[in-house]
Design brief:
Length: 242
């Protein structure tokens, strides 16, 4: 997420609280979770870039979640995973916040407290040629947090105009790996990528989407981030994330 987006979140939530506004602010969120051998969160640390009231709400909610523990030789072990959320904050007249959130996935965390994957630039040559494509990336995250492409497959269009840009983008990604019993582990994830042109009039208004239902229920709808990774082999599978 760009620095200005984080700043916008801080300013928008703060201004809305100060003015007693009720318009929601929709945003991605992340948290680090230390789990015991039964999959119960023992420590939850929401992303420090988020406003304090939002962090407190996320930490309180995530502590109630439960995960399947990691197994080593058939024995359950403690560990650390990182969760991704789609969240929404509604300022209340008394200055408090009502925060809604929806589980998006868990696995390795983003390095440097990032809230989402970095922007994927459209290759200039592909843009000039009006080339479009939907691509599924399978990415390996090593114990050192570095990412490498395992495979890429076009679901629509051709890879030819996008392959080099995708490889360079993945090579620049950095993660905080999950841990099992104090040791970092490698994981794999699928990242769906879309290269296409969208008419400005057809773009979704995130504020309007967030207003569709109380308690920021739109946080459970279509994610704002088109790059919504799915971790394929995290040893910590969620059991309860309500």
């Amino acid at each position: 997420m760009k620095k200005w987006s984080v700043l916008c979140l801080l300013l928008c939530v703060g201004a809305a609280q100060a003015e007693g506004a009720k318009e929601p602010v929709r945003f991605p969120a992340t948290a680090r979770i230390a789990l015991d051998a039964e999959g119960v969160p023992q420590d939850v640390q929401a992303n420090p870039r988020l406003p304090v009231p939002v962090r407190e709400a996320i930490e309180a909610r995530v502590k109630q979640w439960r995960f399947e523990p990691a197994l080593v030789d058939g024995v359950a072990r403690p560990g650390i995973t990182h969760v991704r959320l789609q969240a929404c904050a509604i300022p209340q007249p008394d200055g408090s916040l009502r925060v809604g959130m929806d589980y998006r996935g868990n696995g390795p965390g983003y390095a440097d407290d990032a809230l989402r994957l970095p922007r994927l630039p459209y290759p200039p040559a592909a843009m000039r040629a009006a080339a479009q494509a939907n691509v599924d990336l399978i990415v390996a995250i090593g114990e050192d947090g570095r990412a490498t492409v395992q495979s890429m497959k076009a679901r629509r269009g051709s890879l030819k105009e996008f392959k080099a840009s995708l490889e360079a983008w993945v090579a620049a990604l950095r993660y905080v790996p999950e841990e099992v019993d104090g040791r970092r582990i490698a994981t794999r994830m699928r990242i769906p990528v879309e290269f296409h042109f969208t008419e400005r009039s057809k773009r979704q208004d995130p504020t309007a989407a967030a207003m569709r239902a109380p308690e920021c229920a739109a946080a459970a709808g279509q994610p704002d981030d088109p790059l919504n990774p799915v971790v394929l082999d995290s040893p910590f599978r969620p059991r309860e994330t309500g």
